[in-house]
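Duplicate of #3305? Posting structure anyway:
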């Protein structure tokens, strides 16, 4: 059986220290080979037109053109791992079907885990890859000084507590210091519903409702007056 070819990597990041870290990581993994590094998306576009790339390590916040918009421009992009300091982009990264999302500063073991996923997926047909990524949407929340990955289908509801937000999931509760509005922006509208100024509920987990209450099994959430019409419309009621 022939030996697998190294995965050709391109680093796209406007910060030299960040590029240096990624170059060191790539050098330590035999399955990877660095074919280039650039400091912005415009340079990356030119590079991709001239050189074969299997994996792009792509920063998001960059001058001229950010990573999200750049990726949307590409008709046939290579596999992509986002490398960024901004957790709020995780959900959009999923929508763009990136392989993984690494939050700076990136630990080597986390980088290795993402690379292993690239290596595994490289052996699968493209159709299988798309089906796999589409069935497992997730988002990251900062909690206890680390980023915690939460599968969207496990979230039951979100509750605001002044400066903090509780994410109630099937596997426990995650507390993060951010506003409920910022959490709402991270969640897809088709799956989640703002039913009160202090609550967001997962549509998939609603078991019952009235004009004032949403039932999630043993838990009941209020429907705020300002949200009532939109909530009832989302639940299929003509108002």
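Output from current build:
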């Amino acid at each position: 059986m022939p030996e697998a070819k190294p995965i050709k990597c391109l680093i796209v990041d406007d910060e030299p220290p960040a590029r240096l870290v990624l170059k060191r990581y790539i050098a330590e993994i035999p399955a990877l080979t660095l074919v280039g590094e650039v400091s912005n998306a415009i340079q990356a576009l030119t590079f991709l037109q001239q050189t074969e790339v299997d994996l792009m390590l792509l920063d998001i916040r960059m001058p001229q053109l950010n990573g999200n918009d750049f990726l949307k421009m590409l008709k046939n992009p290579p596999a992509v791992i986002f490398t960024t300091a901004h957790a709020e982009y995780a959900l959009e990264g999923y929508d763009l079907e990136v392989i993984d999302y690494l939050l700076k500063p990136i630990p080597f073991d986390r980088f290795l885990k993402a690379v292993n996923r690239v290596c595994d997926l490289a052996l699968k047909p493209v159709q299988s890859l798309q089906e796999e990524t589409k069935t497992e949407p997730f988002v990251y929340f900062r909690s206890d000084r680390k980023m915690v990955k939460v599968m969207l289908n496990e979230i039951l509801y979100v509750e605001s507590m002044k400066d903090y937000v509780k994410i109630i999931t099937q596997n426990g509760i995650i507390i993060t210091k951010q506003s409920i509005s910022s959490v709402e922006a991270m969640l897809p509208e088709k799956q989640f519903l703002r039913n009160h100024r202090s609550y967001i509920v997962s549509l998939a987990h609603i078991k019952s409702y009235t004009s004032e209450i949403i039932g999630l099994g043993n838990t009941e959430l209020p429907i705020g007056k300002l949200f009532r019409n939109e909530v009832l419309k989302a639940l299929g009621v003509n108002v």
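Confirmed duplicate; merging threads. The chain is about 30% helix and 30% strand. Residues 123-135 have pLDDT under 50 and may be disordered.
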